[in-house]
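Help needed: design a sequence for this.
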């Protein structure tokens, strides 16, 4: 059979190699899913399976899913900034995806809906076109994604192009911060500082406005995994050895991903978040030589001030019209979509 369900721990060697291939990106890697499953999924009443699609005996596509009864969803949650159909090719191939989804439509096992999110808008548009081939679907908006195209600039060249408000704030506040006793900024990548960096991040997060993590082991696991891959850039600002701000950045795929940030609210007036962002930005641009800096999810005003471009992440819900529940869900969703347009 061209489609095969496989548990993560039972993935074939070729599937593991496919997940470890550099072209699939950090958030579709073996390490990402391994940490996600170990730290998130075991606390949920959901099952996970990887759909393996074979074309002429060769593993062509891998689709990480979680499922509850007959509803299939991408193996994602709010920790996931991007979901991709993992491909053995160097680029997203519509022909292979079309073959895979049409094969899934004809499979004997029962499924009602397939929900994939968040994805590149272009990929969702390609999949959406398959409704003409008997795969009714509805695309939906997930969130905005602000990013910076570095364009071979140095940090100083990039910084000079920011608004005067941001530049003045960073320069003035950095000067004041460094005059404080015991003020310093460290960028942790690996080694002896790793455990100290994790503890500092957790301490700052606990003192911030963000509250407790729903899955407390996910972030520490992500930090350790990124460190092993050489992708970790964990910035921590200290005052007298007390961590007051921390930002988790990941450098992979020629991109610096700004994954998570927090600061102690007692030090809000110091603009410590802006100081730390500027420090890490200088590091990834001048030292790591990234081509892109990605703020991942959200339309927050402060993200617009540092980035140059905006794009959108979308999802898509695909209905199995051969299933009674799939048809019912399709009718419900199309009715909701119609009413939304009429009442707009």
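Sure. Designed sequence:
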């Amino acid at each position: 059979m061209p489609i095969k369900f496989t548990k993560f721990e039972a993935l074939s060697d070729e599937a593991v190699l496919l997940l470890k291939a550099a072209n699939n990106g950090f958030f579709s890697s073996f390490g990402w899913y391994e940490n996600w499953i170990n730290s998130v999924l075991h606390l949920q009443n959901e099952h996970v399976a990887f759909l393996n699609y074979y074309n002429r005996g060769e593993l062509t596509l891998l689709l990480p899913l979680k499922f509850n009864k007959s509803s299939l969803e991408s193996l994602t949650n709010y920790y996931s900034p991007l979901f991709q159909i993992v491909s053995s090719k160097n680029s997203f191939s519509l022909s292979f995806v079309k073959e895979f989804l049409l094969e899934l439509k004809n499979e004997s096992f029962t499924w009602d809906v397939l929900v994939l999110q968040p994805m590149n808008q272009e990929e969702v548009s390609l999949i959406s076109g398959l409704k003409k081939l008997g795969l009714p679907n509805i695309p939906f908006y997930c969130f905005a994604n602000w990013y910076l195209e570095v364009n071979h600039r140095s940090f100083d060249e990039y910084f000079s192009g920011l608004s005067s408000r941001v530049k003045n704030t960073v320069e003035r506040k950095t000067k004041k911060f460094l005059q404080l006793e015991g003020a310093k900024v460290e960028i942790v990548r690996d080694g002896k500082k790793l455990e100290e960096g994790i503890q500092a991040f957790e301490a700052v997060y606990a003192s911030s406005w963000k509250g407790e993590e729903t899955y407390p082991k996910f972030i520490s696991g992500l930090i350790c995994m990124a460190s092993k891959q050489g992708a970790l850039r964990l910035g921590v600002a200290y005052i007298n050895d007390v961590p007051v701000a921390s930002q988790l950045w990941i450098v992979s795929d020629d991109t610096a991903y700004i994954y998570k940030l927090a600061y102690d609210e007692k030090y809000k007036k110091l603009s410590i978040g802006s100081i730390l962002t500027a420090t890490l930005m200088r590091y990834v641009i001048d030292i790591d030589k990234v081509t892109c800096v990605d703020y991942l999810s959200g339309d927050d005003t402060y993200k617009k001030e540092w980035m140059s471009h905006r794009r959108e992440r979308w999802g898509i819900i695909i209905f199995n019209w051969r299933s009674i529940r799939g048809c019912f869900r399709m009718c419900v969703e199309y009715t909701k979509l119609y009413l939304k347009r009429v009442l707009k």
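The longest helix spans residues 324-342.
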